[in-house]
């Protein structure tokens, strides 16, 4: 015999996003028939009996709730008992209802009057069988609010977020990723404060309405006038507030009853608010990004024929009863789609031709990143989009951006892209990959050059006496096992200046309105390696001797050339020194190693005639090039820095004063 299978209790409404069977298919007990999606979850509805599909009563896009006809099934296994109604038999054999759309909070012990207590909370009723923990949304020590999502479970039928049954602090988490759990398993311990008082307040609160299907706003009693301007408020959307993420109508628009007016988004779900009556929009009292709550004024609408509608209501009710009593039709007409004035916002519920399987937490994450979920490929069951999918999508977009515009002078701040040139037209070419170090360096330099307003101050320092002293100490340095070069003197002099002129030992705060003053002196120095340029950092330069600096600089340079520098060896610099003295040249413009605000370059020292007031004297002159961030340092300060540096290098004894 044939039997009509109806939708079980799904905790609200759901949209048909997938039909998993066809007419003529043979199905087993618990075999999935269709997939529904609500604002809270997606779920598969199983067959309560085995048999052959005779007719499918729904179509893609239909909105279904408990009791709606789903399929007609030729039942296997004999006649139905005469004294049992088909509907009652179906409910008797139907599996335990699944609360995926809005899982009930875990049962908690009797309220305690103490100020705080650690309470155990278990997995709430998730139906028969088990589910896998696919996401932990909190950590030990986190403070959570009642109804805040704690973790996400996924079964073969649905994925669901488990809310906190009370406010408190997470003491311990008793489940882990990928663990299989079932109803009643210990989930976590929460330190709950003021439980007794909270329970008394909760008892006085009205029952919450599920956000998956917000009720239309309450409208005033029907008026006998032909038309009247009526005010409509935000309907019951549960406790807390929600943000207006989309306005679907404008002033002057004519709307039908149940047509979507606007879209709200909370931490739990996104939802469309329907029109409680037909009419013309007179005024919209909310705006995009506004936080609203139940009862707030939403809009004013001119409603026509209210009295006539009230008179027709009993007749409409009678018509619905007649339709329910009539034989089931072969096809079900889909619910009329809500009119839409603008395209769906990113991270919004599935609309249009392409269906998106994602929970509210994933949709919220997508909206924060500005990701259109229809462009993301899901890796979960039935191609459901997980948080990891959104994160991977963002990473891939950023990676592509770096490949096309990170190392090359393309894009960003309105800079036109460099045209692509086919160099093979001019002769033989070979494509060589940049080393990873070269790629990272190119990206960092490009970022600094685009973001920092560079200015370079040039000067000369007389290091004749310094060079004489350095050579005189050669034997002492060799005895200490180090080679004394000009670098330790430069490090010591710059450290002295960073203490003397602390405006060079700063970084700009991210808000662009403050400077971060550093009370330590760590200086980086550039090391040329076969794979590219590296900057090693010596810490507390102002507290070390020349021989100590020489030894540490040699050790770090050796590490850099042998690819043994650790991340700690390259971080924390306040200032950088780059030297091309061993190669040659006079001056050049070094790029500031942001977030530092200055960098010093020294080129090859040469003998030059210097007028001493009576005659020209041969002096060993060292070219200095100081690049600085003009947002933090002005030109006068930079000139004073190079002048003072020349004085310190000219007579190193002055650093002892």
The computed structural class is alpha+beta
Figure out the total of helices: 11
Radius of gyration equals: 37 Å
End-to-end Cα distance, whole Å, is 106 Å
Q: Mean pLDDT score, rounded?
A: 79
CATH superfamily of the largest domain: Chloramphenicol acetyltransferase-like domain
Number of strands: 33
Strand content: 25-35%
Shape: elongated
Low-pLDDT residue spans: 78-114, 195-225, 306-353, 406-412
The main β sheet shows up as: 7 strands, mixed
- CATH class of the largest domain, named Alpha Beta
- Number of domains in the coordinates? 5
The amount of helix comes to 10-25%
CATH architecture of the largest domain: 2-Layer Sandwich
CATH topology of the largest domain: Chloramphenicol Acetyltransferase
Defining traits:
OB fold (Dihydrolipoamide Acetyltransferase, E2P); single chain; 33 strands; 7-stranded mixed beta sheet; 657 residues; 4-stranded antiparallel beta sheet; alpha+beta; 22% helix; 5 domains; 28% strand
Describe the secondary structure blueprint for this structure:
Layout: E1 2-6, E2 13-19, E3 26-27, E4 32-37, E5 42-46, E6 51-56, E7 63-65, E8 69-75, H1 86-93, E9 116-122, E10 131-136, E11 143-144, E12 149-154, E13 159-163, E14 168-173, E15 180-181, E16 186-193, H2 195-204, E17 227-233, E18 242-247, E19 254-255, E20 260-265, E21 270-274, E22 279-284, E23 291-292, E24 297-304, H3 306-325, H4 360-369, H5 387-405, H6 436-451, E25 454-462, H7 464-472, H8 474-479, H9 486-500, E26 506-508, E27 515-517, E28 523-529, E29 532-538, H10 546-561, E30 575-579, E31 598-602, E32 606-611, E33 616-629, H11 635-650
Parallel strand pairs: 28-30, 30-31
Antiparallel strand pairs: 1-8, 2-4, 2-7, 3-6, 4-5, 6-8, 9-16, 10-12, 10-15, 11-14, 12-13, 14-16, 17-24, 18-20, 18-23, 19-22, 20-21, 22-24, 25-33, 26-27, 28-29, 31-33, 32-33
Helix pairs in contact: 9-10, 9-11
């Amino acid at each position: 015999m044939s039997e009509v299978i109806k939708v079980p209790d799904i905790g609200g409404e759901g949209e048909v996003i997938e039909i998993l069977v066809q007419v003529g298919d043979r199905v087993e007990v618990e075999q999935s028939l269709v997939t529904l999606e609500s604002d809270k979850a997606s779920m598969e509805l199983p067959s309560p009996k085995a048999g052959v599909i005779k007719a499918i009563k729904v179509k893609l896009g239909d909105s279904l709730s408990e009791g709606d006809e789903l399929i007609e099934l030729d039942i296997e296994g004999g006649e139905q008992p005469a004294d049992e109604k088909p509907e009652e038999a179906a409910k008797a054999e139907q599996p335990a209802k699944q609360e995926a759309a809005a899982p009930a909070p875990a049962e908690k012990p009797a309220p305690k009057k103490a100020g705080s207590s650690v309470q155990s909370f278990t997995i709430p009723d998730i139906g028969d069988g088990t589910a896998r923990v696919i996401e932990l949304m909190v950590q030990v020590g986190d403070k959570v609010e009642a109804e805040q999502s704690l973790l996400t479970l996924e079964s073969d039928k649905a994925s669901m977020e488990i809310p906190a049954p009370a406010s408190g602090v997470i003491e311990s988490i008793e489940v882990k990723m990928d663990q299989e759990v079932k109803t009643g398993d210990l989930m976590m311990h929460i330190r709950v404060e003021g439980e007794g008082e909270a329970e008394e307040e909760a008892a006085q609160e009205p029952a919450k309405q599920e956000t998956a299907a917000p009720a239309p706003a309450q409208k005033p009693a029907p008026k006998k006038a032909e038309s009247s301007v009526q005010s409509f408020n935000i309907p019951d959307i549960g406790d807390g507030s929600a943000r207006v993420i989309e306005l679907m109508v404008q002033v002057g628009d004519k709307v039908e009853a149940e047509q979507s007016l606007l879209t709200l988004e909370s931490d739990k779900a996104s939802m469309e608010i329907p029109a409680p009556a037909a009419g013309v929009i007179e005024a919209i009292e909310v705006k995009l990004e506004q936080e609203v709550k139940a009862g707030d004024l939403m809009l004013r609408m001119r409603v026509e024929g209210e009295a006539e509608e009230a008179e027709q209501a009993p007749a409409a009710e009678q018509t619905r009863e007649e339709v329910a009593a009539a034989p089931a039709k072969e096809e079900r007409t889909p619910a009329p789609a809500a009119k839409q004035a603008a395209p769906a916002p990113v991270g919004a519920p599935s609309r249009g031709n392409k269906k998106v399987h994602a929970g509210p937490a994933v949709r919220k994450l997508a909206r924060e990143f500005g990701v259109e979920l229809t462009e993301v490929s899901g890796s979960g069951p039935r191609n459901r989009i997980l948080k990891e999918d959104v994160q991977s999508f963002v990473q891939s977009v950023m990676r592509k951006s770096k490949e096309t515009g990170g190392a090359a002078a393309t894009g960003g701040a309105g800079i036109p892209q460099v045209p692509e040139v086919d160099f093979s037209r001019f002769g033989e070419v070979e494509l060589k990959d940049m080393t990873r170090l070269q790629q990272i360096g190119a990206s960092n330099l490009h970022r600094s050059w685009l973001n920092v307003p560079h200015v370079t101050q040039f000067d000369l320092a007389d290091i004749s006496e310094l060079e004489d002293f350095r050579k005189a100490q050669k034997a002492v340095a060799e005895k200490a096992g180090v080679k004394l070069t000009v670098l330790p003197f430069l490090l010591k002099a710059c450290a002295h200046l960073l203490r003397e002129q602390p405006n060079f030992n700063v970084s700009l705060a991210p808000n662009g309105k403050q400077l971060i003053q550093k009370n330590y002196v760590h200086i980086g120095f550039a090391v040329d390696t076969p794979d590219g340029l590296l900057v090693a950092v010596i810490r507390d330069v102002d507290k070390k001797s020349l021989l100590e600096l020489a030894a540490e600089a040699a050790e770090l340079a050796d590490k850099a050339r042998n690819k043994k520098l650790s991340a700690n060896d390259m971080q924390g610099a306040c200032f950088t020194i780059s030297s091309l003295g061993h190669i040659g040249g006079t001056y050049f413009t070094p790029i500031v190693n942001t977030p530092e605000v200055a960098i010093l370059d020294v080129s090859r020292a040469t003998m030059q005639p210097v007028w001493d007031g009576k005659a020209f004297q041969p002096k060993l002159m060292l070219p200095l090039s100081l690049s600085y961030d003009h947002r933090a340092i002005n030109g006068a300060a930079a000139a004073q820095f190079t002048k003072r540096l020349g004085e310190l290098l000219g007579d190193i004894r002055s650093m002892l004063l």
